[in-house]
Amino acid sequence: MGFKLIYLFLLLPLLTLTILSRADHALASDKKLHESHRNRTVLAGAGRVKIAALKGRKQTSDCNLFQGRWVFDASYPFYDSSACPFIDGEFDCLKFGRPDRQFLKYSWQPDSCTIPRFDGQAFLNKWRGKRVMFVGDSLSQNMWESLGCMIHASVPDTKTTFLKHTPVSSLTFQEYGVTIYLYRTPYLVDISKESVGRVLNLGTIEGGADVWKDMDILVFNSWHWWLHKGVELQGWDYIRNGSSLIRDMDRLDAFSKGLATWAQWVDQNVNISQTRVFFQGISPTHYVGKEWNEPKNTCNGQMQPLSGSTYPGGSLPAASIVSRVLSSMKTPVYLLDITTLSQLRKDAHPSTYGGGGGTDCSHWCLPGLPDTWNQLLYAALSV
User: Fold this and answer.
1) Which of 38, 336, 342, 365 could form a disulfide with 93 if both were Cys (CB 3.0 to 4.6 A apart)?
2) Under the phi-then-psi rule, with left for phi > 0, alpha for psi from -120 to 50, and beta for the rest, what region is 80?
3) Residues in domain Trichome birefringence-like N-terminal (predicted)?
4) How many CB atoms lie within 10 A of CB 193?
5) Which of 38, 9, 296 is nearest to 166 (CA)?
6) What pLDDT, on the 0 to 100 scale, is given for residue 259?
7) How far is CA 6 from CA 92, 208, 209, 211, in A?
8) CB-CB contact of 111 with 64 (8 Å)
9) Is the separation of the CB atoms in 120 and 167 below 8 Å?
């Protein structure tokens, strides 16, 4: 799809909404200095909300939203998957026969504060007429579809427009003028066609990035594809690293360089008076059971989270890279530090119930863990 067509695709929901809004009215006749702009976490508890400054992953408040434990909660899930028209089969575990339901009944409880419960109608009212875009890979899609279902459950009778294309898909809640976009670009940086083949260019973001600029909320994500090996799975033949064209390199180093390019793009192009920027954080996998002291197991057959607040397998190197890059930026980028809380959810993957065969310990069932990611996003946006 050419860039002009992408722009036209993005404008169509707004033109439609403008016409509808005018018709409805007729019928009725009626971010602070750079240092303080670093990642901000909303802390809600005891009936009040506090804001704390973050630098990388270090939090200066007495409450860390991302440090806590999973607790049984009979009020969950937020929605019924059979009533949400936006879920892809790969995430719809109940549709494809997952027999247990207990994985749906856990909520995230921070150690010393309470997360406000998600209210889809309040979200739509607060962000009326605004545009939200998730930018990244299939984990971005996981979170995008989750948010669509959570909002839809609050306003099930509201008219929606749901369009799926490559690279841009959208979901518009017409009455409120809110559009939630998904822009698929797994590496964030460019893959270009050159004479040698497909080249992953660690130093450029040009292909379609202009459509990110005018969003009111941007939620970026990348890491999943940096681990893919083989030209078919990884989607490129060579890497361009500066002036060097190479077959491959250390993937953590490549991720670090690519993320630095993304950070530079954000610093140079995002208008912080208009746009809130988030990074989704590193979503873990559960293929290696020895990480949680079950060496013969994967996510398959897991029925409950790990207890406690620490993951036996330790932290992920990619998460440290994200923290380092974010802390070096001029632009305030809020880190949704989902890694540890997601590591504890070995039970929340599609495993063999993703509809595509094989065992999927990378993505997450819907309803499920991504709903908590969105609840944390909602908390951050509540200020």
Assistant:
1) 365
2) beta
3) 62-113
4) 9
5) 9
6) 98
7) 28, 8, 11, 8
8) yes
9) no
Closest CA to 115 of 180, 61, 64, 57: 64
Residue with tokens 């409950």: 304
Which tokens sit at 364? 């997450």
Which active-site residues does the annotation give? 138, 360, 363
pTM across the whole model: 0.86
DSSP 209: G
Label residue 294 left, alpha or beta by phi (over 0 means left) and psi (-120 to 50 means alpha): beta
Question: Strand locations in the chain, DSSP E?
Answer: 40-45, 48-55, 58-59, 68-72, 106-110, 131-136, 160-163, 168-173, 178-184, 190-194, 197-201, 217-220, 238-241, 244-246, 276-279, 333-335
> Pick from 150, 251, 272, 145: which is nearest to 202 by CA?
251
CA distance 26 to 4: 33
Counted residue by residue, the chain has a size of: 383
CB 121 within 8 A of CB 175: no
Task: For tokens 């997601």, name the residue.
Answer: 342
- Give Cα 305 distance to the centre of its chain: 21
- Take residue 304 and report the two structure tokens written for it: 């409950």
Q: How far apart are CA 376 and CA 17, in angstroms?
A: 28
φ, ψ of residue 378 to 5 degrees: the values are: -60, -40
Q: Pairing mode, if any, of strands 58-59 and 48-55?
A: antiparallel
| Spans in the chain with pLDDT lower than 70 | 1-62, 383
> Whole-angstrom Cα distance, residue 243 to residue 306?
46
| CA atoms within a 13 Å half-sphere pointing along the CA-CB vector of 93 | 26
Which pLDDT does position 382 carry in this prediction? 85
Q: Residue 73 corresponds to which tokens in the numbers above?
A: 């909660």
Query: In whole angstroms, what is the distance from residue 10 CA to residue 170 CA?
Result: 8
Nearest C-alpha neighbor of 360 from the set 142, 68, 69, 47: 142
